[in-house]
Structure formats: structure tokens, C-alpha cells
């Protein structure tokens, strides 16, 4: 019983895909302004993605090294360690750490 449902579902999906693709090809071949705008935007998207890919290929290690700074600190470089004379919870103004009193 489930096999017929799966086959029916797949058959509908394939039919919808074929229908969409045939309409897309018909619109693509038409010399319509809408299609021209789509072609321009699609070309711009592809060129941008290719440019990003090549830029990352050339400068990716540099960006990665700037992001993952070397030295002590938390993950990814983290915040710098506090000065040794100040507690991590004290402010730079020298206010003592506040405690909770019941």
C-alpha cells in the first residue's frame, strides 16, 4: 500500500518538475523584458559568486589568520586577559566587587 503512495508522490513531483522546466524554457526563449531582466540578474549573481570564490581562494588564509588571532585568550582569540592587579570582576575605576547580601 505504501509503495503505491510513494510512486504516486514521486510521479506527481516529476510531473510538476517537468511542467515547471518546460514553462521556464519557453519563457527563457521568449524575447520578453521580464526574461531579459532575469538573465541580467542571474548573470550578475553568477559572476558575483565566482568572484567571491576566487577572492576567498586568494585571500581566505589572510582573513582566517586575522579572525583566529594567535596568543592567549579564549576561543578565536577571545578578549585579552585582565591586568594582574585588577580582579576580573572589578571595573577599571577601581570599584570593588559587589556581593549579594540577604
From TrEMBL:
InterPro entries: TCTA. Its main location: membrane. The chain crosses the membrane at residues 37-56. The keyword ATP-binding does not apply. One of its GO terms (cellular component) is membrane. Residues 74-102 are annotated as: Disordered. It comes from Carassius auratus (Goldfish). This is T-cell leukemia translocation-altered gene protein homolog. The keyword Protein transport does not apply. Belongs to the TCTA family. One of its GO terms (biological process) is osteoclast fusion. It is found in: Membrane. Coiled coil: none annotated. Keywords: Membrane, Transmembrane, Transmembrane helix. Pfam families: T_cell_tran_alt.
Amino acid at each position: 500500500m505504501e509503495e503505491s503512495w510513494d510512486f504516486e508522490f514521486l510521479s506527481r513531483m516529476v510531473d510538476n518538475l517537468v511542467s515547471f522546466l518546460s514553462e521556464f524554457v519557453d519563457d527563457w526563449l521568449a524575447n520578453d523584458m521580464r526574461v531579459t531582466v532575469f538573465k541580467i540578474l542571474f548573470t550578475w549573481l553568477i559572476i558575483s559568486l565566482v568572484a567571491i570564490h576566487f577572492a576567498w581562494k586568494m585571500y581566505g588564509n589572510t582573513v582566517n589568520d586575522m579572525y583566529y588571532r594567535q596568543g592567549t585568550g579564549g576561543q578565536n582569540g577571545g578578549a585579552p586577559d585582565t591586568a594582574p592587579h585588577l580582579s576580573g570582576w572589578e571595573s577599571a575605576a577601581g570599584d570593588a566587587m559587589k556581593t549579594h547580601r540577604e
